[in-house]
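Weekly structure sync, notes
Attendees: PL (lead), two postdocs, one rotation student
Agenda item 3: pending single-chain targets
PL asked that the sequence for the first pending target be pasted directly into the notes so everyone works from the same version. It is reproduced below exactly as submitted, 288 residues in total.
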Amino acid sequence: MKHFRFLSIAGAALLLLSGCAANVETASVEGLKGKGSAFQNALHKEYVELALMEKEEGDDEDTVYFIEKAKKAGMGEDVGPQPLTEREIPADGKQDLANARVNLVNKLWQGASDITPGAAARAQAMFDCWMQEKEENFQPKHIERCRSEFDKAYAQLATPVAKKPAPKPMPEKKMAPLPGPYTVYFDTDSADVDDAGMVVIKQAYADYRLHKPGKVWIAGHTDTRGSKKYNMGLSRYRSNEVGNRLMELGVSRKVVEKARHGEDAPAVNSGDNKDERMNRRVSIVFMR
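Predicted structure, written out during the meeting:
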């Protein structure tokens, strides 16, 4: 599964060195005493339950994945819902999962994890469960159970009237790399964002809420069909369209910066007057 490469080196090494590593790690993580907030302690328990469920099904990879998240939460570390880009989601599930993740991140950001920590932890864990089961896509009852549990927990989330203040930035040397870049692709001679493009934009917005970059750089590109002057204008329309969609979702206008490159910075060197989808794109890049 695609997400395995995102596990910590220690967690991956444990799995590779011993066939019963998942059993050992489950027991040790399950016995951790909570060192974090009520939300983090609740997350620890939820992810332990998911790990035990996957262990019973013989899925060592996902067992270790959920163990790692349980361990981090139990140690008081911030653990967010899994990004869609870390799993290979079938096309029929991407839009629903992207919408659910945006909604969940908004609630968490607004303070649901402080006001209703148990429900918030349940909603996050069940979102990860829903996405994991949808990636496997062979147990429809399991998919529906995780989704139903997510919906029930999400409905219980409460947030304060006042917006949760932004956290103080961490010292530069401790800052983790920002996620991205994100790429939205376009049809020939078009600046319209399709459903697949909206999934990417919603993923970028959700990660923007989690990481609060100082700048969101949006760069438009085209392939080499048509004149350079026309393509420069088309790339501007594309970057404007993606920027507008992000701002409609809630990205602050003051952090958005747009650029147009026309056909001058191709992802694929195709030669002149060539139709190349990989070059018809807008890149979204987060900066400090």
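Discussion points:
- The two ends are 31 Å apart (CA to CA).
- Residues 1-22 have pLDDT under 50 and may be disordered.
Action: rotation student to compare against the earlier draft before next sync.
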